[in-house]
Amino acid sequence: MSYSLPELSYDYSALEPHISARIMELHHSKHHKAYVDGANNALAQMAEARESGNFANINRLEKDLAFHLGGHVNHSIFWTNLAPDAGGTPEGEVAAAVDEFFGSFDAFKAHFQAASLGIQGSGWGVLSWDPVGARLIIQQLFDQQGNTAQGTIPILQLDMWEHAFYLDYQNVKADYVTAFWNIVNWDNVAKRFEAARSNAGASLLV
Description:
minor pseudopilin epsh fold; 3-stranded antiparallel β-sheet
């Protein structure tokens, strides 16, 4: 088994009332676990293909691995981006960078919300570090693996799949996005930002 479901650093009920314990339990123990199992299964089938020399299904397996591994990585980041009794606004280097690249925290927040709510179908709102431009950018990640720039390092992610919010917010996604700001773990974002800028971002992906 190459991948395993990470334990959360807080109880399923810890993020209430912003995210209910029922959603957290289903989201972590069912949805995230399915991505872990899917990634491991794709790797196992690829190993079988190499042993047999039969690569007839390699295109499907590559897509399966990208999708399920994307789901595993995205959720592993998301859980650490959240914390009980968190929220507020960033401080220090993150606050300075937000002001530099987006003009103000309010402008960043409005942009991030618009990008997240504008996703057609399933996906993620992502604040990423672009090492090529040496700047923060906001991206729309489609499904679990599509549409983001190669090499960018995610430091803050918001799950916009329906399973992340529907039991609590039904189809009113804007209320879910508003609630998200009350549980953002800016300390974790700051650690990811520091690691990304020092070219050690991969060490904090999970």
